[in-house]
UniProtKB/TrEMBL annotation:
<dbReference type="InterPro" id="IPR015324">
    <property type="entry name" value="Ribosomal_Rsm22-like"/>
</dbReference>
<protein>
    <submittedName>
        <fullName>Methyltransferase-like protein 17, mitochondrial isoform X1</fullName>
    </submittedName>
</protein>
<dbReference type="InterPro" id="IPR029063">
    <property type="entry name" value="SAM-dependent_MTases_sf"/>
</dbReference>
<dbReference type="GO" id="GO:0051536">
    <property type="term" value="F:iron-sulfur cluster binding"/>
</dbReference>
<dbReference type="Pfam" id="PF09243">
    <property type="entry name" value="Rsm22"/>
</dbReference>
<dbReference type="GO" id="GO:0006412">
    <property type="term" value="P:translation"/>
</dbReference>
<keyword id="KW-0479">Metal-binding</keyword>
<keyword id="KW-0411">Iron-sulfur</keyword>
<dbReference type="GO" id="GO:0008168">
    <property type="term" value="F:methyltransferase activity"/>
</dbReference>
<dbReference type="InterPro" id="IPR052571">
    <property type="entry name" value="Mt_RNA_Methyltransferase"/>
</dbReference>
<comment type="function">
    <text>Mitochondrial ribosome (mitoribosome) assembly factor. Binds at the interface of the head and body domains of the mitochondrial small ribosomal subunit (mt-SSU), occluding the mRNA channel and preventing compaction of the head domain towards the body. Probable inactive methyltransferase: retains the characteristic folding and ability to bind S-adenosyl-L-methionine, but it probably lost its methyltransferase activity.</text>
</comment>
<keyword id="KW-0408">Iron</keyword>
<dbReference type="GO" id="GO:0046872">
    <property type="term" value="F:metal ion binding"/>
</dbReference>
<dbReference type="GO" id="GO:0005763">
    <property type="term" value="C:mitochondrial small ribosomal subunit"/>
</dbReference>
<keyword id="KW-0496">Mitochondrion</keyword>
<keyword id="KW-0809">Transit peptide</keyword>
<dbReference type="GO" id="GO:0003735">
    <property type="term" value="F:structural constituent of ribosome"/>
</dbReference>
Amino acid sequence: MSSILGSIIRRNVSKVVLVPQFEPKIIEDVKNNKYKPRHHPGTRSREVITAPSKVFEATNNLISKTHHSNLEKDAKVMWKYMIARQLPPENREIVENMHKIKNEFMSEIGLDNVDIEETYSEEDIDLLNKGVRRQVNKVLKERTYNWQPVDYTEHISRVYLWSRFVPDYAVLVKVLEEIYKQLPDFKPHSVFDFGSGIGTAIWATHSYWPKSIGEFYCVDTSDHMLDLSSLLLQGGRQNKQPCISHVVYRQFLPSSTTNQYSLVICAYSLLELPSQKHRIQTIAKLWEKTEDFLVIVDLGSASGYQVVLEARDYILSTNNKRPGSAHVFAPCPHDLACPKQQLANHCTFSVKYENMRFKRGERIILPENFSYVILRRGERRDPLTSWPRVVRPVLQKSKHSVCKLCTNEGSLAQLVFTNRKHGV
């Protein structure tokens, strides 16, 4: 079945034929030396991202060297847990599984086609029902993902700082580069960060717009995470002047919907919500607070991709009711259904980062996979946001290169560049 599906997908992909060509304005800008050919607006940085030096110093001050080995061990456990994290099961799914398990069990004991009430006494039926319930609950527990919210205690928060600040920061720097590169004149005046944790979004946005942002509004239910975020800004020393000012911390979403923010960020937080209903309600509230951009980021796992796609589809569904109210700014060049949602390899991206080193040794450079979407209010205005998007690493051969693209028609296409035809 999988090979048949694969052949169908390959046939569908090959139907789209693209002819590579630049927009006339880009060619003119290259001729006028506004851009170099390798640095046109469609290119993105491939540099290895490192943590800000002030974060390294603050982390060194916060974490005693005697705790390094314990944190390193717990960090590996945390990462294994996070990457395997699944969506919390919905009530309807649990009920459906219960009925399925019951039918399986009744079939196994040969009672699936028996009229129980006509065949057995009330006492026997009562005993049978109790036995069936026990078996169903046992199997249901084995088959159902035991989702629990992460309790970010003081120790777990420090483990997260030790292991996750740099990859989370690198991902946000990579994602926000889309806005920075495409809209060089964009100057956000405020940032709203839901699930702010240890404050990676503060540092990432500040790296691009250090002068224009006048307010960082951070929301996280864990007071330990908020304390660490504040201490990082103070260099790891309490009561010290923070290096980034105008930061506000809260544990809950504000009830007021009047205040809007230039950038609203929700990174690595949707999988911490207990149901689809809670996720949709949260996205709706965040969209209400969005003046310009809503940025959704999560893990590059199947579950991470799913919650990002869920948020994308919800916001675009509101656009169907009010045309022109929203569009996908990045990475999709279209507002249609994601063409990769039915494939095994979901739409994920990668960034390389250098982990913090607290002892001498070689540089530790690691990849981090992630899923994301940037949604913007209003109609799609910039033609650059409709350029086809490379959705997997380019395959480079001796005489040609193969690009897998997502097009503005909402389909996948394959484009081959050759020396003979394109001079590359």
